[in-house]
Amino acid sequence: xxxxxxxxxxxxxxxxxxxxxxxxxxxxxxxxxxxxxxxxxxxxxxxxxxxxxxxxxxxxxxxxxxxxxxxxxxxxxxxxxxxxxxxxxxxxxxxxxxxxxxxxxxxxxxxxxxxxxxxxxxxxxxxxxxxxxxxx
Length: 136
Prior knowledge:
The chain is an alpha+beta fold and 136 residues long.
């Protein structure tokens, strides 16, 4: 590895130490359905977001709730203290498209219809309110 590449890789690693996030990969739900849940909690305080996700009727909400708990745990582990009420917020949450499984279903007159089984990747960042103001 070249010197410049190594230096930039180290800078990237240092920047990641200041971010608190969790990611969920290859969730067997379409990205569109997951984005509906992500939009519900974007920018919320984490305790309020956990309540919204717990009582949501969407199936994807349970996956995002588990991911949010993981992100909170990551924040607590890096800061060596428990998160207080009203301190942590969801700074970023985004859903990317994952791999799509292509399947065929028999159709009339010898044809075949294509079925796309979509998946997605979810990334959730948490932080304090002061960190949000610094980034903006």
